[in-house]
Each structure stands twice: as structure tokens, then as C-alpha cells.
Design a protein that fits this description.
Chain lengths: ~625, ~90
């Protein structure tokens, strides 16, 4: 077995209440690493086209990678893969917390849950005894994710769902500690199986090819992170909320259901404001992560809870025109406890507010008004009244009530908080990403509009190349499995310290913007491992990984996902953006919109796809994608 | 003509306000007007403005005519820091 892997896949059948430990497929591991890549391969191979995502035939796959179980910073993440009930295409999400570490300690690389149970169940997996216990979870059913984990207790690592997953809310997530695998409705799939929780324990050690060099090198990386302006400073101080004022200043902060990109009260929901007014000194992290991007906040009269992240602040804050951190924090707490993705939740609430404003939906919701929203969030999780409609997300709501042109979604997945009208490459990424309108499947906006070195985000230069490189890299990162935030460390401190108006800075930005195909070519070189995650993978597995290797593997995963979506009926017509984004301006002085029509053919060509967005036989052969 | 300036959080803390209205016809004039609010010498402003970019209605001035970028009535000039989120 390749080092870094436990070498085992745990297969659990809820219908039969049976389990088996099977050997990990080394060939799949070499081609797809693990995590999202390995899970996607299994999903593609094991399922027929057209299965019901909420039926027993949809496997729920928890997958780790070779970095999990090590002490590498940002490496306590697992991927969940299944068919998405929200999009009908590939479903996946990754999650921090401690469950990934628990799986590897139990000697499990991948856990595949099939079938479904009549009664609420929970699983206890003891990796040392090679035992799986199927336990009645009736008394946990209906409880929130926090209480469920508290009852399950310490000594095991848990992945649980809340009422939203139980009631098949299409954007329900799976929670580990206070982190959530939020996107694409993976929690609803777990709920459809009547599986409340998975708890794992074990004491196995991760075998590495070169543990001494790994340990020494990791010390160096930790020191570098500590000194890095993003990973060591702003993330540590403000969390992801550090970016609120930046996106607001760049006119890409979703406001009023994406009608605008600027919110006058953005400052009051920013990371800086949180630090001054609500932060209670406790910063939290996933196991072994020195970045500590999580934080506790205190809401007056309500108590202490997890501070909202950027996406939550934007979608439940500016997008609803709520400039009050206490209110957003409270909603964030409820959404996490109920087990819901706050991005889809906030986008769906914003869409409902605009529908109501236009007389297309009977409701008392209105922008800037928090009254009734807390109750509605609970109603969504329990599918009561109007909440039952919102539980289906924006695409299905638009099909029922109208408003498709301003429903903020791609392929059924609600857009995250970077308005693509001020970030063209991010728009291409939203349109083409296989799981739908999501930012962490590439994060082009970092090099395009918000990071320390950015190009002009509103011309066509690099806007087809950048998403490809970023999507491929994200596929590889999500297969190791690492936190995508690690990529923020790629831009060195030196660049952060440059004055954006200086000549050297502008020269560098000009070179990047005009690098065109050279940009992708430079990434494709299969040389020596340079970046920390390339070196970690190499030191752990003994297999050489460089930027070129990861780009190739990432492209393989991305194309397999694409083939899965095509098989499920998603095609080029779904590679689009809402009409509002394509045609409306975010600011009265800008003639905006998004030039997707010009960029998409270019993107397809560079991907090695035909004009209908189908990977050519040559591309699939080159990438060794068997379908 | 009247334009709105949005300050960074730290600038705003020092001045006690996050937004100021000034008379300015260009980015250069808007920056000068903002700097003047920080008192004699503008040393605090210079320190806080380090490594910030200037955006006009969300578009960076360096993608327009930089300091010579003309402003229209009601424009918003923002001091923007680079950041990363998620």
C-alpha cells in the first residue's frame, strides 16, 4: 500500500445492517489521490444514471486523503461525495473539524454508506476492533447538531446532521465540531438514509515514506505561515470576515439579492467590527491548524457562539440588507445547529424577499427587516409553511413562483459572495464548476479582485485560463484533503508588502494579466515539488508531486465530474449565470453585466472540450479518464 | 463636485466616521481631501493608506487613469485593502 493511506475502505449497508472492510484501490489512489477525487470515481463507477439522490441507491461517501491524519496544518478535512439532491449533478462538500483525523486513526481512508434505514440510526465505528455498531438514534432524532455531538460525547470524532438533514432540506449539511460540509445538500442525503451520526475511534498511526523530513519540513512551514500576512495575520485576527470591507470597496459584495455590489452598512458586519465589538477572545481551529480562522462571538442576551464567516456575513447580512452583526451571528448559530448551508439559506431568503417585494410570493419578508426571519429559519429546517418552499432552494422556487432571471444560482446551487460582474474569471468559474455556483472550487477571485496581487477583473485577459488552473488546483487540494485557504499562502509576503500604486507592483500585475497561455503552461510543468502541499504529499507517499502533477490530476477529477454531470443530464446550457448577472449593472455609473458568452467558448477550447462543452475523446484519453 | 469617500476601518476609527463627503473632481483631489481630514501633516493618513488601493465605484483607479481619474457627482471613492476570505 502506498504510504499515507490506511489502505482500507469501510463499506456499510444500512438496509442490511452489514459492513465490510475492503482494500483501498491503489490505482484509483494514484490517479485521483483521495478525498473528492477518489469519491467521485466511486460514485461514477457504482451508480446508474438517473438515480434518486434521496433514494437508497445514492451512496454517501466520506473520503480522506494522504495528508489527513498527519499534523500538517490545514489538513483535518474530509470530503463528502454523492449525487446532489439540490442540483441533480455531482454533489460534494468538504469539512474541517476532527472527523477526518478520526477516520484515519480508525484506519479508514474511505467510508461508503449505502442503502437506507427505516429507523433513525447512528453508527459507531471502532477501527481497532474492526467493528461497526448500528445503534438506534430515535432519541437523537430532532436534536440540533451541537446537542447531538454533546450527547455523543468525547473520545470519538463525529459527523452529524441536524433537523434540516432529517427533513431533507435540499441544502442541509453535515457537521463536525462547529464546522460544516455545507454545500450541495449532502446532509439531506444522510437524512434520507435516516442516519443521524457517524462516530469513529481508533489508535492507528499514519505511515509515511519519510516521517523525519516531513516533521522537520512541517516546522518550517508552520513558521512561514506564522509570518504570512494572510495565514498568520489577517485570518488569525479577523477570520474570513477580513474580506467584507474589501469586497464592498470592490463593489462585489452581494447586496439586496445581488441587485447591488455595495452595502452602506458593510463595516458593521466586518471582521474588524467583530474584533472590536463581539469577539470574546476565543479563536478556534480545526485540529492541528495554526491559522485559527474560527472565533467565538457573544450576542447580547443570547450567549456565546461561533462567529459568522465571510460567506454568512454576506449572504445573511448585506444580501438581506441586515447591517447588524448580532442578528447575523444569531442566524448563523441557528443554521449551524439545524445543519444548513448558510450560503444557500441566505441566497434563498434574499430571493424570497425580492419575490415578495415584486408581489410574486405572499410573505412578510422584506430587505432590511429581521423580524420573523429567525422563526422562518426554523420553519425551513422543519419544512413548515413558507419554510417548506424555501427548503427547496432558489431554482425550484423560481420554477414555482417565477423570477428565474434573478434567482442567484447556477445548476441549482446558490451563488456565493463574490459578485461576478466585478470579477469576470470568478463568473466563468461559477458557470462551469461542476457542483454549481461556488467559490471554493477554484477561488479565482483571489488573484482577480481581492488578493494582494490582482489583475483587471473586468476585461477578457486571463479570464478563461485562470479558472481552469484554479479549478484543477482546487480539485487536487480537495482530494489530499487540505483546506483551500492554503492556496492563499502561495502569494509570498514580499508581494503583500508592495504598494499597489508602485511601478514594480503594476509591472507584476501587468505581466500576470498578459501571461495568457503561458500562465497555464507554467503550472503544467512536472518538475520538483516546490510548494508545501506538493512536498508534504511527496514526503508522505513517496510519489513525486509537483504543480504539473497536481494540475493533471485536478483536470482528471474535474473532467470526471463533468462526465458525471453530462450523464445526469446537465450540459452546456447549464453553464450559465443568472440573467441579472449577465445583463444588469451593479452600479449606476457602470455599464456592467458579465461577458460569459465571449469567454465560455474559449474556456471550452482550452479545456479540450467540444463546442457543446463535452470533453473530447482525446482529452479523456490524455487524462486517463475512463468512462 | 460632491463625492463620497469610504475609509478603511482603521482610518475611520481615527476620524470617528467611516465615510466623508468631499468636493473633488479627480482621484488625486479626493485623496488630498481625505488626507486633509487627518490634521496637520497627514502623517497618520500616510501610514494607514500604505498598501491600500483606490477604487472608484468599485473599479481600481489603476485600471482607469490612476490619480487623474475624473470623478462624477455621487461617485464613491474607496480605500481598499487586499484580503482573503472564504
Amino acid at each position: 500500500m502506498i504510504k499515507g493511506y490506511a489502505g482500507r475502505v469501510l463499506e456499510v449497508d444500512l438496509q442490511e445492517r452489514s459492513f465490510a472492510f475492503e482494500p483501498l484501490d491503489e490505482e484509483i489512489a494514484r490517479l485521483y489521490i483521495g478525498g473528492k477525487g477518489y469519491g467521485t470515481r466511486l460514485l461514477y463507477d457504482r451508480t446508474e444514471a438517473g438515480i434518486d439522490p434521496l433514494g437508497p441507491a445514492n451512496p454517501l461517501i466520506f473520503a480522506t486523503g494522504p495528508l489527513n491524519g498527519s499534523v500538517a496544518p490545514q489538513s483535518n478535512r474530509f470530503a463528502v461525495v454523492c449525487k446532489s439532491p439540490l442540483t441533480g449533478g455531482i454533489g460534494n462538500a468538504t469539512c474541517g473539524g476532527s472527523f477526518a483525523f478520526g477516520l484515519k486513526k480508525a484506519g479508514i481512508d474511505v467510508l461508503v454508506v449505502t442503502g437506507s434505514s427505516e429507523q433513525p440510526l447512528r453508527l459507531e465505528v471502532d477501527g481497532d476492533a474492526d467493528e461497526v455498531r448500528f445503534l438506534d438514534a430515535s432519541e437523537l432524532w430532532g436534536k440540533g447538531t451541537y446537542e447531538t455531538q454533546r450527547i455523543l460525547g468525547k473520545g470519538r470524532e463525529h459527523a452529524v446532521i441536524g433537523p434540516a438533514g432529517e427533513n431533507l432540506v435540499l441544502y442541509a449539511g453535515i457537521v463536525s465540531n462547529e464546522r460544516i460540509a455545507g454545500r450541495t445538500g449532502v446532509g439531506a442525503v444522510m437524512g434520507s438514509k435516516r442516519l443521524k451520526a457517524v462516530s469513529v475511534t481508533g489508535s492507528r498511526k499514519l505511515e509515511m515514506e519519510d516521517p523525519d523530513r516531513f516533521r522537520e519540513y512541517t516546522k518550517t512551514v508552520r513558521a512561514t505561515f506564522k509570518d504570512h500576512p494572510v495565514l498568520g495575520e489577517s485570518m488569525k485576527r479577523f477570520g474570513t470576515a477580513a474580506i467584507v470591507n474589501t469586497t464592498n470597496g470592490r463593489n462585489i459584495l452581494p447586496t439586496r439579492n445581488f441587485q447591488k455590489g455595495h452595502f452602506d452598512d458593510a463595516m458593521k458586519i466586518s471582521g474588524e467590527w467583530m474584533e472590536d465589538h463581539a469577539l470574546k477572545g476565543v479563536k478556534t481551529s480545526c485540529l492541528h491548524c495554526p491559522v485559527t480562522c474560527g472565533r467565538d462571538v457573544e450576542v447580547e442576551g443570547k450567549g456565546r457562539g461561533k462567529g459568522p464567516e465571510y460567506e454568512t456575513l454576506a449572504l445573511l447580512g448585506s444580501n438581506l440588507e441586515i447591517g447588524d452583526l448580532d442578528t447575523v451571528s444569531e442566524w448563523n448559530y441557528h443554521a449551524d445547529d439545524l445543519g444548513m448551508d448558510t450560503i444557500s439559506l441566505g441566497a434563498t431568503l434574499g430571493f424570497a424577499m425580492e419575490l415578495g417585494e415584486k408581489g410574486m410570493l405572499e410573505s412578510k419578508l422584506s430587505f432590511g427587516d429581521a423580524s420573523g426571519v429567525t422563526d422562518l429559519i426554523h420553519d425551513i429546517a422543519h419544512r413548515r409553511g413558507l419554510g417548506n418552499e424555501l427548503a427547496n432552494g432558489t431554482k425550484r422556487m423560481a420554477e414555482k413562483f417565477g423570477g428565474a432571471g434573478f434567482a442567484p444560482q447556477v445548476k441549482g446551487l446558490e451563488l456565493s459572495a463574490y459578485d461576478p460582474r466585478g470579477s469576470y474569471a470568478q463568473g466563468v468559474e461559477y458557470a462551469t464548476t461542476n457542483r454549481g455556483g461556488c467559490h471554493v472550487q477554484g477561488a479565482s477571485m483571489y488573484l482577480e479582485s481581492v488578493g494582494p496581487l490582482t489583475i483587471n477583473p473586468q476585461n477578457l485577459k486571463l479570464k478563461a485560463d485562470l479558472p481552469i488552473v484554479q479549478q484543477n488546483l482546487a480539485c487536487a487540494i480537495n482530494s489530499m484533503v487540505l483546506c483551500i485557504f492554503t492556496t492563499y499562502g502561495i502569494v509570498p509576503k514580499l508581494v503583500h508588502e508592495m504598494d499597489p500604486s508602485s511601478r514594480p507592483y503594476r509591472a507584476l500585475a501587468f505581466l500576470l494579466e498578459n501571461s495568457g497561455p503561458l500562465f497555464r503552461w507554467a503550472q503544467s510543468i512536472k518538475g520538483s515539488p516546490m510548494l508545501w502541499f506538493e512536498k508534504w504529499l511527496t514526503l508522505i507517499t513517496g510519489i513525486k508531486f509537483s504543480s504539473g502533477h497536481l494540475q493533471e490530476i485536478g483536470a482528471r477529477i474535474f473532467n470526471l465530474e463533468r462526465m458525471y454531470n453530462l450523464r445526469e443530464g446537465l450540459s452546456a446550457e447549464h453553464d450559465t449565470l443568472p440573467d441579472r448577472i449577465l445583463h444588469e449593472s451593479t452600479f449606476e455609473h457602470l455599464d456592467s453585466g458579465h461577458p460569459l458568452g465571449e469567454l465560455l467558448p474559449l474556456y471550452y477550447k482550452k479545456r479540450g472540450w467540444d463546442s457543446k462543452g463535452v470533453p473530447t475523446a482525446r482529452t479523456l484519453k490524455r487524462l486517463q479518464v475512463e468512462v | 463636485m460632491p463625492v463620497r469617500i469610504e475609509l478603511t476601518y482603521d482610518m475611520g476609527k481615527l476620524l470617528g466616521t467611516q465615510q466623508v463627503e468631499v468636493e473633488a473632481g479627480s482621484v488625486a483631489e479626493a485623496i488630498a481631501a481625505a488626507r486633509a481630514r487627518f490634521g496637520e501633516g497627514g502623517g497618520d493618513f500616510d501610514q494607514l493608506a500604505k498598501r491600500t488601493a483606490i477604487a472608484v465605484n468599485g473599479v481600481l483607479a489603476r485600471h482607469r487613469e490612476r490619480l487623474a481619474t475624473k470623478l462624477s457627482e455621487g461617485d464613491t471613492v474607496s480605500f481598499v485593502k487586499a484580503a482573503a476570505g472564504g
